[in-house]
Design goal:
five-stranded antiparallel β-sheet; alpha+beta
Length: about 750
């Protein structure tokens, strides 16, 4: 009956009553079976139950006169509310439906909500929102579910009672009383066990954090605030005890034995969770036999087991500043599932015959047993490939490394020809001492060894996605839509303002192949601004995510792409492994495919959400540690570059890549921001500020808690003014001076 209901509600535009629904279903069934006698009592009860559940879950809307309509035919939507400190917010909605052609459509939308239309919603609430019609502002009509199970904060004492002051300023108006006594000043995580009234809760302390200055504790605190739990369930830890720590004979049944192959891994020096290994062999026909061997985590973690449930909730491992919060316990992530050298490990191998011009001729995906010959480091691999310096341990593998590198360069060239976009973005890396304090800064760069690994992982991911699609099986794709034209348009205006005009429009960038690639190449010539421009260009791109609906990967210029190569640290990869085993290698592939089709949308949404959590936690912890470091350097001077301007602040990146701000109110004089030329203009004869200006700045203040670094200007070293900007800026200055004179004349 569910399919019949879906068909009816997809077609009808106005609310209909239950009798009309019965009649329409009977007509649908008679079209298939002319002898059908009409709905039985039990069938009507089933329909009523489906409609009731649909109303409960906001799939349908019930009108006051007991009629029903699909929520998609109304101005109502259900979504998640994101609040701001000022009381405003937005609601993010996702709708999924089949269109009339039978295509699966997923749409995401965001609606801004003013403070007066928030209806008491707080950050994280699931809400019913009226998106408005005919110019009406969106308004929250109902809080569907308050996603507030726990809160983090500081224990305070009021009278004889103990309360928790939430650390999240968006939740500080909540009153949370604690059961029993506590220690004033402690930082705690609290489960909310009672909800006596709207904003009043009773909580139970579930975790007490150590002092904020203890090593790692500040990182864990920030991670927990972002929604990351570093602890595994008791059931998971119990499950780990029963997992063998070496490969047994029974585990090898049905697997190809590749332990005599020349297989090795390449990772960072401190990597302990090794997902992937490589092998290569030159064939007599001139082609290459390339093996990408991936840890077979799915062998040790059954679906719906405690470990799987914990991994699904996390979605990913979290690599935060100086701290790793793994998706699986160390016994798996660093032990039996890690492709450590000199020991047998279970793998799922994608073995490809690749032509000398980088095309995959044929492939097979098969369960294997492997034994890595060596754990190589990027540093020593780069020494071999760039300088010819060979560590004695690497000597027997140097020919294979050079062969892999030669093929990787061909694969990269092919990608760029297809229109893939590469961003030149060095990453700031913090070096911490034994106390968890920043001792130095370095820049993480991609070199030949890193590129080598990236190219073969991309090749395997594409090959696996293609294989599933060609067989008609579902896949959890890694998709990436086209860039945001509005953001691109503003970005191109900024390039014009700083004297680097690009000869194409934002529409050209989206619609003409290779133009985005040309833009990425164009900004590499921006000197000291190249890193900033590359970062800002990335922000114009749509966000990649996981979905069973394939729209391709725009940034990589690939029609088919998934994540298959990191099942230790990404849940989507583990999911793809399971699909391969169930569908490509299983005994009942069509039955398995039907099962996965019902699950993948939820898995995609959950893992995409947790990836955003990871990005947020990484930004927050990085900003916190940089602010902590600068708090010990108040009064010190540094050279830096202006990388952003607004009416509130100048954004500065120091030469060590640490970023901070100069608040406009702290500048000497009266300033106005010109958004057309991206400049901050003095209207009383002092320095103007342009993107790209070089400044000598002094550290004025830094707050680890607020994650802010404030500078003051000591002197301007170099100016990045352009003729184009100067003409328009003079007009803005003249107008601003007149406005100030008029205000003074009127006494305002």
């Amino acid at each position: 009956m569910k399919d019949y209901l879906d068909t009816i509600f997809r077609k009808v535009k106005k609310p209909i009553d239950i009798d009309r629904i019965y009649l329409k279903i009977e007509n649908l069934i008679r079209n298939e079976n002319p002898d059908y006698q009409g709905l039985s009592k039990s069938e009507k009860e089933e329909i009523q139950s489906l409609i009731h559940n649909g109303v409960e879950n906001y799939k349908y809307i019930e009108t006051p006169n007991n009629r029903y309509v699909s929520i998609l035919k109304t101005s109502f939507r259900v979504g998640k509310f994101f609040g701001t400190r000022g009381g405003n917010g937005s609601v993010s909605t996702t709708i999924s439906y089949m269109d009339r052609e039978g295509n699966h459509v997923v749409k995401e939308q965001k609606y801004s909500i003013t403070k007066e239309n928030c209806s008491g919603a707080i950050d994280g609430d699931s809400v019913l929102v009226d998106i408005g019609r005919n110019g009406e502002k969106p308004k929250i009509k109902k809080i569907v579910h308050r996603n507030l199970e726990n809160v983090m904060g500081e224990v305070i004492r009021i009278g004889t009672g103990y309360f928790v002051r939430p650390i999240d300023k968006k939740k500080q108006f909540l009153t949370i009383a604690l059961e029993g006594e506590a220690i004033e000043g402690q930082r705690v995580a609290v489960d909310l066990v009672e909800h006596p009234s709207d904003n009043f809760y009773v909580g139970k302390v579930t975790r007490v954090f150590n002092h904020k200055d203890d090593p790692d504790e500040d990182i864990l605190w920030e991670a927990f605030k972002c929604g990351i739990n570093d602890q595994f369930s008791k059931e998971s830890l119990e499950q780990v005890k029963n997992i063998p720590q070496k490969v047994r004979d029974i585990d090898k049944v049905g697997r190809e034995d590749l332990t005599d192959w020349e297989i090795f891994t390449i990772d960072g020096e401190d990597t302990k969770d090794i997902d992937d290994a490589l092998s290569i062999k030159k064939l007599s026909n001139g082609n290459y036999l390339v093996g990408v061997h991936i840890a077979d985590v799915s062998h040790y973690v059954p679906e719906s087991s405690p470990l799987d449930i914990d991994a699904y909730r996390r979605g990913t491992s979290y690599y935060l500043t100086g701290k790793v919060i793994p998706m699986f316990p160390h016994e798996l992530s660093n032990g039996i599932c890690s492709l450590n050298p000199y020991v047998e490990r279970l793998a799922l191998s994608c073995i490809m015959e690749v032509s000398s011009n980088g095309k995959v001729i044929r492939h097979r995906i098969t369960p294997t047993v492997i034994k890595s010959r060596l754990k190589m480091s990027y540093t020593k691999v780069n020494q071999i490939l760039k300088d010819g310096v060979v560590d004695p341990q690497y000597k027997e593998h140097q020919d294979s490394l050079r062969m892999l590198n030669k093929l990787a360069l061909i694969l990269r060239r092919n990608r760029l020809k297809q229109g893939a976009v590469e961003f030149n973005r060095p990453e700031l890396k913090l070096i911490l001492d034994e106390n968890g304090q920043v001792s130095d800064f370095s820049v993480r760069k991609q070199d030949l060894g890193e590129n080598l690994i990236e190219e073969f992982m991309l090749l395997a991911n594409e090959t696996v996605a293609k294989a599933l699609a060609e067989h008609g099986f579902p896949c959890l794709y890694r998709i990436h839509g086209k860039p945001n034209e509005e953001k691109l348009d503003q970005y191109l205006q900024m390039l014009m303002a700083i004297g680097m005009p690009f000869g194409y429009t934002s529409d050209d960038c989206v619609s003409i192949p290779h133009v985005l690639q040309e833009l990425a190449e164009h900004i590499k010539n921006a000197g000291r601004l190249a890193d900033m421009l590359s970062t800002n260009m990335v922000r114009c791109m749509s966000r990649a995510k996981y979905s069973p609906v394939n729209i391709g990967h725009s940034g990589l210029a690939k029609k088919y792409y998934c994540h298959y190569t990191s099942p230790i640290r990404r849940y989507p990869d583990l999911t793809v492994h399971r699909i391969i085993k169930d569908c490509l290698l299983g005994d009942h592939p069509r039955k398995a495919a039907a099962k996965w089709e019902t699950k993948l949308l939820d898995i995609g949404n959950q893992t995409s959400k947790m990836e955003r959590v990871e990005d947020d936690a990484e930004r927050q912890t990085m900003a916190m540690k940089c602010s902590e470091y600068m708090s010990h350097h108040i009064g010190d001077t540094y050279e830096g570059t202006i990388i952003g301007l607004s009416d509130r602040a100048i954004q500065i990146q120091l030469d060590n890549m640490v970023e901070g701000r100069i608040l406009t109110r702290d500048l000497d004089g009266d300033y106005v921001y010109n958004p057309v030329t991206f400049t901050l203009l003095s209207i009383d004869g002092k320095d103007d500020y342009y993107i790209g200006d070089r400044l000598l700045v002094k550290v004025r203040d830094a707050s680890k808690e607020e994650k802010t670094i404030d500078f003051s200007v000591e002197e301007k070293i170099d100016e990045n003014k352009t003729v184009h900007s100067n003409r328009h800026n003079q007009l803005v200055k003249t107008k601003a001076r007149k406005d100030r004179m008029n205000r003074a004349y009127l006494g305002k």
